[in-house]
Amino acid sequence: MNKYLLLLIVPFLSFGQDIIYLNDNSKIESKVIEITSDEVKYKIFSHIEGPLRTLKKIEIKLIVYENGSHESFEINPGLNDKSEINPTLNNTPKSKNRKVGVSLGVNFASLIGEDKNVFLNALDFAFGQNELVSSAGVKIGLSLLQERTSKLNKRYNLGTELYFDQKGFTIKDNNGNYIKDTYFYLTNTFIYYGLLDLQGNSSLSIDLGLFTSFLLNGKTTSEIYGIETSDTYDGAQTGLNWLDNGFILGVSFNNEMENQGYSLSFRLMPSFYSIYDPDFSTLSISWLNLSIGSTFYF
Predict the structure, then answer these.
(1) Helix (H, G, I), strand (E, B), or coil: what is residue 50?
(2) What residues contact 101, with CB distance under 8 A and at least 6 apart?
(3) pLDDT tens, the chain, 298 aa long
(4) What domains, with CATH codes, occur in the chain?
(5) E strands along the chain, which residues?
């Protein structure tokens, strides 16, 4: 389609929105708010009360405004037939802003698996009547979030996290004696965030992803009839697999501003495989981790 013919046709198809055409031939239905020397600030037309977004001028080919006027940002305006603006060509998801954040949270780990009862019976035999209690552990690390828009003009985010976290459990008897095992991991996550826009700058997301945890070391603390002991082991001495994999299912509340924001998340993170090393134990037991956390982006 001839570029100038497009400029005659698009105003009648815009229905009040400004159309931003990017250099990758994708488009954004928007309301342009401000144009600076090197940026264009806008809002998504279908979510006009949402956050203000920013594009570099070098990313933009053309803006067709609601009144039919247009503004070109091309450095080299000459186009061949394959690179001409095509308002129906919107097949490539568009990468938007990237945000880096700090993640803080608390884990509540419990044991699951077909051999959990066997494990508990073995504890009763070794320590007498006892109770297995989940232990809370902290997590702290970094998060990278990339905002994207699908070919259907729907927003979603892709993210990855790298953080240190703790998992463990405590064995208690009726006399107040206890043995507490704590395991320290380095965890990497890959998460898809499906967004549901709320009022203002807020949104909810369904979080789906995978995680991989590397066991660093373990620690056992105990108090038996008033005598306290503490021992630390490297990963190989704990009897657990050094690698723990699983999937993520959660929900997050997000509040985003132009270059900052925060997220509050609630996630279930069950492991795929047994956490015990086959050479140490034939038990099939895995972690079920409940993670509550927050991330502050900047």
Answers:
(1) coil
(2) 142, 143, 144, 145, 263, 295, 296, 297, 298
(3) 444 444 444 444 445 789 998 888 888 989 999 888 888 999 988 888 888 899 988 889 889 888 878 888 765 544 444 444 454 444 445 555 788 999 999 999 988 888 888 777 777 776 666 788 888 899 999 999 998 888 877 889 999 999 999 999 888 888 888 889 999 999 999 999 999 988 888 999 999 999 999 999 999 999 888 899 999 989 888 888 899 999 999 999 999 876 688 999 999 999 988 887 655 566 788 899 999 999 998 8
(4) 3-90 (no CATH), 96-297 (2.40.160.20)
(5) 18-22, 27-35, 39-44, 53-56, 60-64, 70-72, 94-112, 130-134, 136-149, 155-173, 178-197, 202-224, 227-234, 243-256, 261-270, 286-297
The vertex-67 CA angle with 66 and 69, nearest 5°, equals: 100
Count of residues making up the chain:
298
What stretches of 113-201 adopt beta strand conformation (E)?
130-134, 136-149, 155-173, 178-197
Chain centroid to CA 119: 34
